Amino acid sequence: MRTLQDSLAGAPTMPLKTGKAHGERRAGPLIFLIVLWLSLAVAVIFLLTLIVNLLLEGGSRFGMPLFTEYPSSSPDRAGARPAILGSIWVIATTALLTIPLGVAAALHLEEFADKKHWFNRIIELNVQNLAAVPSIVYGLLALAFLALIGVRDKNIVIGGALALSLLILPVIIIATREAIRAVPSEIRDGSLALGATKWQTTWRQVLPASVPGIATGSILALSRALGEAAPLLLLGALVFVSFDPNGLLSGFTTLPIQIFNWTGRPQEGFHELAAAASILLLGLLLLMNGLAIFIRNRYQKRW
Amino acid sequence: MASAPDNAPMHLHATHPGQVPDYIARPIMRVENVDVYYGDFRAVTEVNLEFGLHEITALIGPSGCGKSTLLRSLNRMNDLIDGARVDGEILFHGENIYSKGVDPIEVRRRIGMVFQKPNPFPKSIYDNIAYGPRVTGMKVESMDDLVEESLTRAALWDEVKDKLKQSAIGLSGGQQQRLCIARAISVRPDVILMDEPCASLDPIATMRIEDLMQELREQYTIVIVTHNMQQAARVADRTAFFTAQVSEGTGARTGVLVEYGTTTQIFEDPNDQRTEDYISGRFG
């Protein structure tokens, strides 16, 4: 009878060096890997082409005049100053409208509402669906609402903010709910066991703990709103604005609409301006997304 | 505070756990005919228990015997679970904590709780302690003193006094659990419920918590749920043994109290065969 020792001693040793770096024995997996790489490459190449193209076309016009000049019928003198200010006005107003509302709605749904009740389940389903509604529909809704309350000139900052708020409110609600759900129930239990009320627990423990998640979600939602043109077009934002917007009732245009406007002109100079404004818009979006990622990584997992 | 009957030997704090008289001279809590339900499911049935002032009572038994469920119903933490319901009476200083008009918030302040997994708030050590007094609106002359006192009582002050402003998340597991104990006593409860407080700790951290419990017993009444029989034998004055009864028809498991007595009696001279089997390691 052979003992284990004998078997081990007598077994012919297989060389560990098989000459294959990744241990793949057949061609199939390798081909699959190559296909995956190609798919990735297609996506990245398109993005790079876009950026390089923008830089080549608009790079020469990307400078101070873009920020300081007003639109003009002559491409050499035109700039995007009102559009930049308009975007800032509209996005800031949107943020002020949506973040408190969205966070409050999410807090109610997560912490206070009875999740098993049919009414709350319908609301939950609706919020999910609203996040997938095309943006132009929200433009129509805002338009109808403004008409209903008798606003004649609908291209106003508050009108645009209203349309964009409707658009991103579901996104903010969903992101906030995720953030709230990520707060461990042990934290709530610990607070309640000390004699804190539900309200105190929500306000002092749950909400502060979910702020990073709320911030990340809100910034991403706002960056979506920043790049949005369709609902604002419906409100009539495609106009020649040669003044700085200065209030909620002020007329406005935004960067995406300015780009749309310039791209539609026949002169080559306007196309270059459109590219330059696109660089600015793209940079802003990257900045906001970068900030969101930074916040997410910085405050991740504190327990 | 009720005084002990004249014929009772005068004893405030037993020097060793288990060295307590057979009867409870000064009960602080009384559980009368308690059934706990989750919806239609009866998790615990027919429990009658008394907890003596400044005593440590251990609830032991196999998994699923309802001891944690019972513990959570002692300070109305079960209210937070959908469908949880308590039948019978749980008297605290003679008052049923489930009667109408009793504020569960106040119940939880008077009857504190320490959980299985240390759950410090993601705040500074100082704020972890100050949180309870702040939210309950306690009148505090000096919050700094209260924080120091609570941490001292929880045997944590010396380790953290130089880093009170640092996050509590950076503490070790055992320190976190002592912080949670300090947090629980900061609101000056009468009773502290502990739900397997050492389950996630190493033996040395466990020993420190057990020592701490002996000190806390001077001022508080402690009810501890533990899986660890040796722990019950080491720390508890009285022990209640629970087991799960499987219903013939449905196969539902319901917790029942098998035996309740001094720890010495339960471990050395159990009356019930099931207790003896469990203690001697034959099941569970």
UniProtKB/TrEMBL annotation, chain A:
Residues 84-292 form the ABC transmembrane type-1 domain. The keyword Chloroplast does not apply. Keywords: Cell membrane, Membrane, Transmembrane, Transmembrane helix, Transport. CDD domains: TM_PBP2. The chain crosses the membrane at residues 30-56, 83-109, 130-150, 156-175, 232-253, 273-295. It comes from the Bacteria. Residues 1-21 are annotated as: Disordered. InterPro entries: MetI-like (IPR000515), MetI-like_sf (IPR035906), Phosphate_PstA (IPR005672). It is a multi-pass membrane protein. It holds the Pfam family BPD_transp_1. It is found in: Cell membrane. Part of the binding-protein-dependent transport system for phosphate; probably responsible for the translocation of the substrate across the membrane. NCBIfam families: 3a0107s02c (TIGR00974). Belongs to the binding-protein-dependent transport system permease family. CysTW subfamily. PANTHER family: PHOSPHATE TRANSPORT SYSTEM PERMEASE PROTEIN PSTA, PHOSPHATE TRANSPORT SYSTEM PERMEASE PROTEIN PSTA-RELATED. This is Phosphate transport system permease protein PstA. It comes from Agromyces lapidis. The lineage of its organism: Bacteria, Bacillati, Actinomycetota, Actinomycetes, Micrococcales.
